[in-house]
Amino acid sequence: MNFPKDFLWGGATAANQFEGGWNEDGKLDSTADHFTLGSRKSPRLFTEKIDEKKYFYPSHQASDFYHHYKEDIALMAEMGFKIYRMSINWTRIFPNGDDKTPNKKGIEFYRNVFKELKKYNIEPLVTISHYEMPYHLAETYDGWYARETIGFYLNYCKVLFTEYKGLVKYWLTFNEINSLILDGNGYFSGGILSSSQKNMEAGLVGELDDLTKDQKYEDVVKQYQALHHQLVASALAVKLAHETSSDYQVGCMIAGITQYPYTCKPEDVLLSQQERRNIFYYCPDIQVKGKYPKYAKRYLKENDIQIKMNLEDECILSEGTVDFFTFSYYSTGCVTTDDQIAKTAGNLVFGVANPYLEKSQWGWQIDPIGLRYFLNEIYDRYEIPMMVVENGLGQEDKLEEDLSIHDDYRIQYMKEHIAAMGEAIEDGVELIGYTPWGCIDLVAASTGEMKKRYGFVYVDADDEGDGTFNRYKKDSFYWYKKLIETNGKSLY
Ligand code: BG6
Predict the structure, then answer these.
(1) For residue 358, what are the contacts with CB-CB under 8 A and spacing of at least 6?
(2) Number of the ligand 1 atom closest to the C-alpha atom of 328
(3) How far apart, in whole angstroms, are the C-alpha atoms of residue 323 and residue 344?
(4) Average pLDDT, stretch 437-444?
(5) For residues 17 and 381, what is the distance between their CA atoms, to the nearest angstrom?
(6) In this predicted model, what pLDDT tens digit does every residue of 193-204 receive, in sequence order?
């Protein structure tokens, strides 16, 4: 199996889960800074006032990349990274979101990060918005529910595109943009402070059942409206990036909510097609093809969701199509019309358990073959370059007395998924890069836990933020380094 010679091997993180320094150098609180620590059994609570005496907020210190970036980038370089996916914390650049001028210290921090990456020839892949926005925008405007937020986001993009010209080539407009239409995600993905449900319930089943039908309906309508605003903002950002530099390539980033029909019963197969379109393809059909697909119109009508659109929106969407497609892929689930079948956890959603798959410690089903299957499916639909920008196994690791970490389970997971990518490339998929998630340990988005580790590098900190924050290389570090050195050949 041959990976293309310029294949972009790397890793991925997000500012609110990795960076820390939440209130340093002029930065103010983001929507993510209001989430407490949770677990598989209890949700991360949203608190309006940040009360550090009462609660622990994982994003505040996270893995402290803010103070460790040189050391962390050196570790990435040692593994041979060609690309590093990271996100910019909007509140570092515009602390309130609607400020007249950007925060110089915030601009400087990311410039230093990009320069450090350049030193090692590591290409940054920058997510402009990864599950956070200035809290002030949530409080004052109701986040992405307000059309004004498009303008604030574009001001922010303008600063990024001009300041970092020559330092960055690849941009992603929104992380997992399709997550905004999932149950209960209005605040988490769209800063909609008026949502009835603001706690982070991902990883738990059934919590939303307490909401009344009306509350659920209102939330959903707001979420679709907010998503429309993000899609318009994304298209305008693509256009702006292209106008700013012919070097810029802008991609979409879709949550890999990938499901099979549970049985070959035609009802299950049809449901699976409908869910795939309504949850997975809905956004990229707009971002890659430039218009709302016909099935979306039917879905919105049948669910009585009316989206307010401006006259110019159609044109904006058609002119702002992306250059490449990216998605996250951790697990797959199944769908069925039979509501008696047990559900299982997965990234962002619950699906019906697949009896042929094993589960991770956090209950996510492991499915490397599914990666080959979905890469092919998506590529057939869009035929543009693709990257897998999140993938990995979240599991507890043990730091041995000699400071080694033996994570053979992670190596096994990675091996199988990378082999599946190799197969997909042989099938004809134009896969250009791979950035496994949490390449250096960081806090989990769904639970806020540090012990759910994904990294090749261990960060010595626990769920409550106690520890030295020293970095230690896991066995997977050496394994991945070799894999990159041989451009994937060491796998076979
Ligand atoms: C993706 C997100 O949904 O899944 C990441 O983009 C997140 O931010 C990742 O960390 C893994 O989920 P978790 O809950 O294990 O961190």
Answers:
(1) 365, 366
(2) 1
(3) 34
(4) 98
(5) 32
(6) 999 999 987 655
